[in-house]
Design a protein that fits this description.
Helices cover 67% and strands 0% of the residues. It is an all-alpha fold and 230 residues long. α5 runs antiparallel to α6, α7 packs parallel to α9 and α11 crosses α12.
């Protein structure tokens, strides 16, 4: 491990909070290597590291702790890099995702310029037939974060319908994305829900549930949606 990486690990160990670890680890099944460092602190540190040689942290970090994986993903998002190089870093990072928290923080940190959306879309579509839980969730959450916009909404909804939803966190990612799509584009999302679709009953009903819980969905729509549950 390089000296700067040792410094980052030492900093993480110094920021650890037992109470926060207890709270957070209870929300992330199987995460037994957590120190308990709060997300805003991780984001601040990742922004600092992204201004250095970001590749050392994004691609070369020796990860012992959950927070080290989290920082590595955030650094990729914050790095000022050509989109093609960033895509390769994303491709290398995806296999290191083993829980929903790293997945969603990583995805939310990646911000695309309008000119970058097409090439990143093509990259995401490499995973559209995946049967791996977190590859599916990466696609679903990235579509939610970046592609719920008029010029992509039809293809986004179609892709969400065809993603494999046989694993829990992949399915929940799809449901979350569809619920958010409904809040922004109800007509297009409703067309999928009412028509022939490939959603399992679990994913379909979870999407409806999330729509019912959303403050952005009007009450009259919720009555209709409630009656649509399978």
């Amino acid at each position: 491990m390089k000296a700067r990486q040792r410094e980052v690990r030492k900093w993480l160990e110094e920021q650890a909070a037992v109470d926060y670890k207890k709270f957070s680890s209870a929300l992330i099944p199987g995460c037994d290597n957590m120190l308990g460092v709060r997300i805003p602190l991780l984001r601040k540190k990742a922004k600092e590291l992204a201004k250095e040689n970001w590749r050392d942290f994004a691609r070369g970090m020796k990860e012992e702790y959950f927070e080290e994986t989290m920082i590595a993903g955030m650094v990729i998002g914050y790095a000022r890099a050509d989109i093609k190089e960033k895509i390769e870093a994303v491709r290398e990072f995806i296999p290191r995702i083993h829980n929903w928290s790293v997945n969603d923080c990583f995805c939310s940190t990646i911000k695309l310029k309008p000119s970058e959306r097409e090439i990143f879309w093509d990259f995401l579509m490499e995973y559209k037939d995946s049967r791996k839980e977190y590859e599916v969730r990466v696609v679903a959450v990235m579509l939610l974060d970046q592609y719920l916009i008029p010029e992509y909404i039809e293809e986004t909804i179609k892709t969400l319908d065809y993603l494999y939803d046989g694993d829990y966190y992949g399915s929940m990612g799809i449901a979350w994305a569809l619920a958010t799509a409904y809040a922004k584009f109800p007509e297009q999302t409703l067309s999928l829900l009412r028509g022939e679709n490939h959603l399992s009953d679990f994913t379909y009903n979870k999407a409806i549930q999330k729509m019912l819980e959303s403050y952005r969905v009007p009450p009259e729509d919720k009555e209709m949606l409630r009656a649509m549950k399978r």
